[in-house]
Amino acid sequence: MKLSRHIPLVLGLVCGALVLSAPAEIVGFRGDGAGLYPKAKPVLQWSATSNVVWKTALTNRSNASPILVGDRIFVCAEPATLICVSADTGLILWQDSLTDLPQPAPPTHNVNGYTSATPCSDGRRVWVVFGQGMVACWEVSGKKLWAVTLERPPNGWGGCVSPRLAGDVLAVQFDHLFGLDPATGAERWKIKTPWGWGSPVVARIGKQDVLYTCKGAAIEAASGRELTKGLVALEYNSPCLVDGVLYYLQQKPQAYAVPEKPEDQPRPLWPGVAIAGDRYYATPLIHGGLVYAINQTHQLTVLDQTNGAVVYSKKVEFLQGTGYPSPTLAGGYVFLSSENGQTVVLKAGREYEEVARNSLETFRSSPVFSGSRMIIRGQKYLWCIGR
Asked: What is the pTM of this model?
């Protein structure tokens, strides 16, 4: 049932309008996937009572990251709800829930739930994947365009693969990788390719869009044809694509140059030396000639972008709980967070230089930035942090 113009309790004073840069043509997980906001001018210190522009109570929890689309923020809530919030004021403009959910519901881990996938948008429409095996599309104004049920997820732990818009195809992964018509949800193709926790990235090669999956396959977006496979296999996180280079970060990092022809295998740039073990839920950050990788127990390893050599490794002791959020760059600073709500701010560079420590409520999402403001999707509230 759609709840139009639902107004929540908004706590805190609205301190000026949110200055948004023009939205990218496509936005989704970590903005364009890289988590880079170099033009942002973030505040470095905050708490639940300081530097809070507004906070908005949400209907239920979610691990999905927020996305900024013009003057609106889109977030998810369990079990299958999309919420649209004014970026300026924090007021809920509309929210809508899918009600015809598969029964019995597929099993999922309590931490994961059904809304760990981050939505994506082209500025006019918003696409959302729900862990029951469903995909839905709304106009940014709130009109639901379509909803389809594809298949039950392939495991008992739930999923978190975010949708990707690749040309005129919406790529969605459950047991199969599906290519859907963005306008109608109709299936254009599906391919059996290994399932993973990470989301694919989209590379433009010549006149073609190619999906590189977390399991190392290259899929032609227009047709669903498998071009190459067996490149690498990430266990938990997503590959990162920056300036024509694919980065796969876990215990043995690897980097590959995107090929000049879609059917060619990406060229290895460096195999990487073994770094700290444990699970890498966080997708890496690539900036300023460095690669920032952090595992679930907050061991940060910074690599040289050119050869994969370790520049430094440091246990970030202030962070507590599991390290789900991905590192994010805002201005000249790197933001590292943990699910217990702690964030450490580092000065970007080849030495560990900590400039601030902050605490908030529990969150597992990754922050997004615009101007002097940071948006965090907590388990109870949507936070706007700024001056």
From this structure: 0.92
